[in-house]
Amino acid sequence: MLSYRHSFHAGNHADVLKHTVQSLIIESLKEKDKPFLYLDTHAGAGRYQLSGEHAERTGEYLEGIARIWAQESVPEELKTYLEAVSALNPRGDLRFYPGSPLIAAHLLRDHDKLNISELHPSDFPLLRNEFSRDNRARVVREDGYQQLKSQLPPLSRRGFVLIDPPYELKSDYQAVVKGIQEGHRRFATGTYAVWYPVVLRQQIKRMVKDFQATGIRKILQIELAVRPDSDQRGMTASGMIVINPPWKLESQMKSVLPWLHKVLVPEGTGHTLVEWITPE
């Protein structure tokens, strides 16, 4: 369909959760000197203007990154993520928000590699231009799921795969499970993170059961809800399903999620969750 544009939603509460998890995984991989591959299957445009027409129309960032930005002090777990946001806003005012590929580019080292793909005809040229001078990056206009077949396993035998589709179709919930199975068959030791929205809870319960049925071990679920589950239209929560998470990630998210929930949801509705779908 290719109608989804992340520019309407950049910097919202779901981005805060997703990019916190992403940053913590990358920082963990950097603890070893050996290089690794970052593979982003649905990369978007890379950078988003928060004063632009799309972001201003929804104003979702005002209840997301803007609330974090206004805090005088933040937990240690958020600092590398916020450093990546600050890199786009050197004057201190919040004008731009980095998508997942730009956050990765800021955090990765010179000898690490990025493989990023995007199909949208408007977003791909923006993404390609964003990385035109980054020799670490391979930017392609291809189906991100095909990258799991063609780019895995990486030569370094170390890698982090982020799968963040638009979920325009109900089949996207099954596609991410198939994508993980495909990647895991080729590269079982890699770290994989799947972002998901909670629109109908039953879809997420079904997806979790599908992950359990794969037989893959070490699957961690992390979720942040800003409202109670509902059968009405709209996203009430979002989450990350992480395969082969770094050993510290569970405790890091259990530590930081209550703070995030308090700041992002001052009225106290919703919930947080960190639990294993399948343990080791």
Automatic annotation (TrEMBL):
It is an enzyme of class 2 (transferase). Its EC number is 2.1.1.266. S-adenosyl-L-methionine binds at H19, H42, S100, E118, D143, G144, D164. Gene3D superfamilies: Vaccinia Virus protein VP39. Signal peptide: none annotated. It catalyses: adenosine(2030) in 23S rRNA + S-adenosyl-L-methionine = N(6)-methyladenosine(2030) in 23S rRNA + S-adenosyl-L-homocysteine + H(+). One of its GO terms (biological process) is rRNA base methylation. The active site is at D164. The record marks Y4 as: Interaction with substrate rRNA. One of its GO terms (cellular component) is cytosol. GO terms for molecular function: 23S rRNA (adenine(2030)-N(6))-methyltransferase activity; RNA binding. Pfam families: RsmJ. Keywords: Methyltransferase, RNA-binding, rRNA processing, S-adenosyl-L-methionine, Transferase. Belongs to the RlmJ family. Specifically methylates the adenine in position 2030 of 23S rRNA. Monomer. This is Ribosomal RNA large subunit methyltransferase J. The gene is rlmJ.
